[in-house]
């Protein structure tokens, strides 16, 4: 699933890092028929990655991913990412909660994509983690990975929630977090505080980490069409 359209102004970046982020973007997307049909190509792409910790984590994930039947895999994805706020893939929620600041953050992120010469996807919020990872792959480590660094606390919360739930998707977040700068002691304390208190609240007094209020739930696999055409390159 290609979520962003590349323009001529995007600069080149190290191939291995971009390939890793692109693969993470694909693996975190809903496992519809199109993605499942590309599993062999995804496996080849993972095998081509350097023998580093992130590459090893993705190869381990794909061993599980390639063996799953479509319906149980789709059910696991929905239960993991759509029905649990603690592992929601919409990053601005962790930083801004259900406040007006979140709307501004979404607009700023969409403008960042356009400035980089990329067309934001239709039908998906710009803070959806697969979109953010694809932007990082296309735009390079400096500007491209800035949103990932900005939402580092949210990524750590997702990672921790996936580990606690025993989800194999924790391996994908393991790979992603390993690519980014490590957390300082102060940042780790802030992550712990956020995990206890939950994100900010404003107009709507939601309990921390209840069901997601804005993000659309995935429809059952037989009723949901792919959002975009995918490109998988071995």
Overview of the structural elements:
This protein is an all-alpha fold. It has a single domain (15-197), classed as TorD-like (Orthogonal Bundle). The chain is 54% helix and 0% strand. It has helices at 15-27, 33-37, 39-47, 53-65, 70-82, 92-96, 100-115, 129-139, 146-150, 152-165, 170-179, 185-197. Helix 3 (39-47) runs antiparallel to helix 4 (53-65) and helix 10 (152-165) packs antiparallel against helix 11 (170-179). Mean pLDDT is 82; it is low at 5-13 and 203-234. Residues 205-234 are annotated as: Disordered.
Short synopsis of the structure:
The chain has helices at residues 15-27, 33-37, 39-47, 53-65, 70-82, 92-96, 100-115, 129-139, 146-150, 152-165, 170-179, 185-197. With 234 residues, it is mainly alpha-helical.
Helix segment count?
12
The termini sit apart by 14 Å
Tell me what portion of residues adopts beta-strand conformation.
Answer: under 5%
The CATH topology name reads TorD-like
| SSE topology string | HHHHHHHHHHHH
The stretches of 5 or more residues where confidence is low (pLDDT under 50) are: 5-13, 203-234
Largest sheet, described in full? none
Number of domains: 1
Strand count: 0
Q: How would you describe the shape? A: globular
**Rg (CA only):** 17 Å
The CATH top-level class label: Mainly Alpha
Structural class designation: mainly alpha
Mean pLDDT across residues: 82
The CATH architecture comes to Orthogonal Bundle
Protein name: Nitrate reductase molybdenum cofactor assembly chaperone
Biased composition (Basic and acidic residues): 215-234
Pfam families: Nitrate_red_del
Region (Disordered): 205-234
